[in-house]
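Notes to self after the Tuesday call (sharing in case useful).
The group wants a holo model before anyone commits to mutagenesis around the pocket. I volunteered. Ligand is adenosine-5'-triphosphate. Logging inputs and output together so the record is complete.
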Amino acid sequence: MTEAGPFQQQPAERATQSLPVRVAIMNQKGGVGKSTTAVNLAAGLALRGERALVVDLDPQGNASSGLGVERDDIKYSMYHALTEEIDVNGVIQETGVEGLHVAPATIDLAGAEIELVSAFSREGRLHRALERTTGYDAIIIDCPPSLGLLTINALTAATEVLIPIQCEYYALEGLTQLLQNIGLVQRSLNSTLSIEGVVLTMFDSRTRLAADVVREVREYFGATAYDTVIPRAVRISEAPSYGEPIEVLDPASKGAIAYADLTIEWRKRHGR
Ligand SMILES: Nc1ncnc2c1ncn2[C@@H]1O[C@H](COP(=O)(O)OP(=O)(O)OP(=O)(O)O)[C@@H](O)[C@H]1O
Ligand SMILES: [Mg+2]
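Result:
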């Protein structure tokens, strides 16, 4: 048996949260599948009857556009919610999926990171904003590829972290730093934050390297690693250009099946 590491959490502990579960999808490494996972996990939950909110905390706005919300549709964004110019409820928009809402981001959000530096309780802005939302079963926060103030806000507001790891050569590089930062937030800002899961993405079954990465990650993270592995699939990369989650665009595709499996596994872990 693999030794139980610091990542193993008791499922019962998670199920007792009274506020909605708030998941920060985080990895400071770029292009590992954070936004794709945020969009498709949240959509998967909504398609199964849960009310889900995606909070786009990345100035690139990929989760917003992936859900069909384009720059021109965004009057107020997470920038306004974090600077407290607009109540977060005035920022949230509906998406094409019933039960799925999004609090979008635009490039303005990069400014919030700077403007908030000297602000009062700057790390707790998102937490405060999300406390004013009601009616969600799950809130999924898409983090930018950095460890700056936006990510710190996400970790302060979240109940748990989900880390996507791309099946590639440098997969585990930077992970120590990531875990250190989560530890720092746990000690100073959010003692109940847990690392709920690690999900392997862009798996290419034709390479031995990908299989090696899966094995290494499973050895390191034990049961924290999801059984579901997301394959590299062209349809997944095409879906954002349609502004649709993969399960809506092409439900029979292998990418859609993988994200459906991930959603089901997530729900099982959360006693749903
Ligand atoms: N399973 C997959 N198969 C094929 N392409 C994928 C898959 N997952 C993500 N992609 C594509 O890879 C690119 C990076 O994915 P994504 O934007 O989700 O990563 P990210 O971690 O959010 O990136 P960033 O750090 O820039 O925010 C995107 O073009 C996306 O469409
Ligand atoms: Mg992203």
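Two things stood out.
The chain has one domain: 15-269.
The longest helix spans residues 254-269.
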